[in-house]
C-alpha cells in the first residue's frame, strides 16, 4: 500500500506529478482523496454513520472516522472513488446517488507524517440498517451512528461527549453491539475546521428536504 501511486498537486491544486503514497506523506504533497458521509432520517431524526477503524490500521486505529473514505490512485478519477464504499463497508452505491459537497482541503502533521488532502467529499442519504453493512475488517471493524445534532454540538463545542450506537466485529469474527459515550478524542484528528465544514454542508442538504 505504501507504494501505491498518487497524483500530487501544488498549492493552487495544479497537478505537478505522481509519487508513492509513502513519499506523499513523508514530503507532504497535496493529494486527492474520496470521502463519503452517510446520513439517515428515522422518525424525523437525522443521524450520521461513522466507521470504526480497525485496530490493525497503521494510522489512527480504533478511532471513529468518515463513513467510507480513501485515497484516489494516480489512474483514477473522482468517480472511481465510489469503490471505497463497497470495499470498506459493503454497500453498493452508484456515483449518481451521491450528493457532491465540494473539495475540502486540510493538513494534518504528526511525527514524520504529513497528510495534505484534497478531499472530494460526498453525502449519501441512506435507508440502510446496520444489518446491511458488510465490513472489510482489515480496514473497518465497526459501524456506529450518532444523532446529527449531537455530532454538530460536539464539533461546535456545545457538548463534550455524545452517544454513539452500532456494532463491532471482534478478532474472532463475532458481532458485538456497542453503545458508548465518546468525546472528540475518539475521532480521527481531522482539523476541527474540517468537521465544521462538513456539518455546514450537510446541514445545507438536510434543509433541502
Explain this structure.
This protein is α+β, with helices and mostly antiparallel strands and 209 residues long. The chain has a single domain (5-206), classed as Nucleoside Triphosphate Pyrophosphohydrolase. The chain is built from 4 helices and 11 strands; from the N terminus they run ββαββββαβββαββα. The protein has helices at 21-28, 83-89, 148-155, 192-206, and strands spanning 5-9, 15-20, 30-42, 45-53, 64-65, 68-71, 99-110, 113-125, 140-147, 162-169, 175-182. Strands 1, 2, 3, 4, 5, 6, 7, 8, 9, 10 and 11 form an 11-stranded mixed sheet that branches. It is globular. The model has no long low-confidence stretch (mean pLDDT 95).
Radius of gyration over all CA atoms, rounded: 17 Å
The largest sheet is: 11 strands, mixed
Whole-number tally of structural domains = 1
Rounded mean pLDDT score: 95
Distance between the termini: 40 Å
For CATH, the homologous superfamily is named as Nucleoside Triphosphate Pyrophosphohydrolase
CATH topology: Nucleoside Triphosphate Pyrophosphohydrolase
Name some characteristics of this structure.
209 residues; alpha+beta; Nucleoside Triphosphate Pyrophosphohydrolase
Write the topology of this structure.
Layout: E1 5-9, E2 15-20, H1 21-28, E3 30-42, E4 45-53, E5 64-65, E6 68-71, H2 83-89, E7 99-110, E8 113-125, E9 140-147, H3 148-155, E10 162-169, E11 175-182, H4 192-206
Parallel strand pairs: 3-8
Antiparallel strand pairs: 1-2, 1-3, 3-4, 3-6, 4-5, 4-9, 7-8, 9-10, 10-11
In brief, what are we looking at here?
This protein has 4 helices and 11 strands, in the order ββαββββαβββαββα.
Amino acid at each position: 500500500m505504501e507504494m501505491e501511486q498518487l497524483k500530487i498537486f501544488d498549492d493552487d491544486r495544479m497537478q505537478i506529478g505522481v509519487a508513492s503514497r509513502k513519499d506523499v506523506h513523508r514530503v507532504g504533497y497535496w493529494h486527492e482523496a474520496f470521502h463519503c458521509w452517510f446520513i439517515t432520517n428515522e422518525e424525523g431524526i437525522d443521524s450520521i454513520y461513522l466507521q470504526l477503524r480497525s485496530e490493525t490500521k497503521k494510522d489512527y486505529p480504533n478511532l471513529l472516522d468518515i463513513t467510507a473514505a480513501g485515497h484516489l490512485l494516480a489512474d483514477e478519477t473522482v468517480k472511481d472513488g465510489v469503490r471505497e464504499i463497497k470495499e470498506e463497508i459493503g454497500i453498493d452505491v452508484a456515483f449518481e446517488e451521491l450528493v457532491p459537497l465540494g473539495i475540502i482541503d486540510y493538513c494534518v502533521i504528526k511525527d514524520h507524517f504529513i497528510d495534505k488532502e484534497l478531499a472530494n467529499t460526498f453525502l449519501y442519504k441512506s435507508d440502510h440498517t446496520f444489518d446491511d453493512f458488510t465490513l472489510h475488517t482489515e480496514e473497518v471493524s465497526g459501524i456506529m451512528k450518532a444523532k446529527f445534532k449531537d455530532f454538530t454540538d460536539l464539533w461546535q463545542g456545545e457538548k463534550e461527549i455524545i452517544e454513539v450506537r452500532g456494532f463491532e466485529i471482534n478478532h474472532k469474527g463475532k458481532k458485538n453491539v456497542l453503545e458508548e459515550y465518546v468525546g472528540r478524542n475518539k475521532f480521527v484528528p481531522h482539523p476541527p475546521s474540517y468537521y465544521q465544514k462538513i456539518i455546514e454542508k450537510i446541514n445545507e442538504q438536510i434543509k433541502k428536504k
